[in-house]
Amino acid sequence: MKIDFQVMEALELLERERGVPVEMILDALANALVSAYKRSPGAAEEARVTIDPDEGDILVYAQELDEDGNVIREWEDTPDDFGRIAAQTAKQVIAQRLNEAKRGQVYDIYQGREGDLVTGIIQQVDHRYVILDLGDAEALMPGSERIPYERLERGNRVKALILEVRNEAKGPQIVVSRSHPDLVRELLKLEVPEIVDGTVEITAIAREPGHRTKIAVLSHDSNVDPKGACVGARGSRVRQVVNELRGEKVDVVQHRDDIRQFIAEALGPARVQEVVIDEEDRTAVVIVSDNQLSLAIGKEGQNARLAARLSGYRIDIRSDQPETPEVEAPEEEAPRVEAPVAEPAAEAVAPGDDATSADADLAKPVAAGDEPESADAEITTANDEEE
Questions:
Q1: Alpha carbons 107 and 171: distance in angstroms, whole number
Q2: Quick one: residue 353, left, alpha or beta (phi over 0 = left, psi -120 to 50 = alpha)?
Q3: How many Å apart are CA 150 and CA 249, to the nearest integer?
C-alpha cells in the first residue's frame, strides 16, 4: 500500500515553504497510523508502521510482547482498506503540522519586538478586547489598553504598540496597546527623521490617553530647533500624530537642564513668573499672574499633573495675588516619569498647544482658562515666541 501521490507532493511543499522536514511529518504520520490500525477490527494490541519516504509504501507490523515489553514475534498485518485510512490520517497530520509551523513562524517574527509599532485592521470589538489583523498574525488589545472613549469600528485601520509576545499552547499571543505613552513616541518617529537619526532626543513623556500628552525634546545639534523639528511647518508633523490619536492634544516641550526653566516650559501654554525649587523634597512652587492661574492648572488640574509627571517634581501653583489660594497638583498624580518599553521615551505637542518658555516675557498674554480649541489650531515655535 502506498501514500497517495498528492499527499507526498503536499509533504514536499510543506518542507519547502514552511521549513518542516518531511521525515518529521512522516514520523508523526506513522504514529497516527498506529492508532488508526489499533481501532480496526481484529487488530493486535501492539504494532508499528513503516513508511518508505522514496516510494511512499506503508506497511503495518503487528507485534507480540513478553511480560517485560520485549517484542517476541512480529508479522505484517496491513489491513486491506488501510489506504483510505492512511490518506485521511495523512491530511489531518499535515494540517496539524502546518498550523504548528505557522504558529512557530509567527512567534519567531514577533519575538523580541516589544515596543514596536504595528498597523492592523480591526476584526472584532467588544468591551473586553479588540482583535487586530496584522496580516500574518492576530493581535489582542485588552480593554485596559484602549484609549478611553475612542470609537473603534470593524474594518478600520489603526496603529498600536506591541506590549508583549507570549508563546502559548494554542499559539503565540501578541498583546498591543493604544494607551501606552510610548505609542506617541513611535508615532512621532514616523514623522520626524531627526528623532530617528538621533539629532533630536525625546527625554520624557507624560500622557493622559484620549486627552493630552506632553513630550520633552532635546536637540544634540545647535542648528536644529527640537520643538520646530517635531511640530513641523505649520504643525504638519505633529498634526499627523494628533490625527492618529483621534484628536488627543500633544504638547512639545523643550527640555532644559535648568529644572526651573524646564518646569516653566512644561506648564505651557501658561506664562510663569517664578519657580522656587526644593531639591530635597523634589517640590516646586510656581508663581503665575492671576489671569494665568486657570491656564497653568488646566482643566481639572490636567496641565499641572502632566507637568509634574514630565519634570518629576510635585508642583504647587500660586497666584502673585496674596489673597488667591494656592493650588497644588493632585498628590496621587505627583512625580511619575513614564518608563519606556523599548527605547528612551518621548512626548509631543498638539497643534495650538505650544508650550511657552520661562523667559518668554514678550509672548502674548493668554486669558485665564483659555486653552487651544482643537488639534488644527495655529502652532507657533519657540522662535515665533521670541519674535
A1: 8
A2: alpha
A3: 14
Bridge partners of residue 286, in order along the sequence: 275, 317
Residues in the chain, total: 387
**β-strands 46-51, 58-65 pairing:** antiparallel
Which residue did the predictor score with more confidence, 101 or 362? Answer: 101
CA distance 296 to 371: 10
Nearest by Cα to 270 from 321, 244, 304, 243:
304
375 Cβ neighbours under 8 A, 6+ residues apart: 239, 242, 243, 247, 248, 249, 350, 351, 352
Percent of the chain predicted with pLDDT > 70: 81
What is the rounded CA–CA span in Å between residue 274 and residue 263? 10
**C-alpha cell read off for 35:** 492508532
Domains of the chain: 5-110 (3.30.1480.10), 117-177 (2.40.50.140), 181-386 (3.30.300.20)
Cα dihedral value 300, 141, 374, 264, nearest 10: 50
Dist CA 292 CA 227 (whole Å): 23
Joined grid coordinates for residue 224: 536644529
- Planar angle of CA 305, 307, 311, nearest 5 degrees: 120
> At a CB cut-off of 8 Å and minimum separation 6, what does 95 contact?
none
What is the C-alpha separation between 353 and 361, in angstroms, rounded?
A: 18
Alpha-carbon distance 240 to 192, whole Å? 11
Q: How far apart are CA 49 and CA 58, in angstroms?
A: 7
| Angle ∠(221,272,361) on CA atoms, nearest 5 | 70
pLDDT digits (tens, 9 = 90+) for 7-26: 677 777 777 776 777 787 78
What pLDDT is attached to residue 193? 95
- The per-residue pLDDT for range 175-224, each reduced to its tens digit, is 999 999 999 999 999 999 999 999 999 999 999 999 999 999 999 999 99
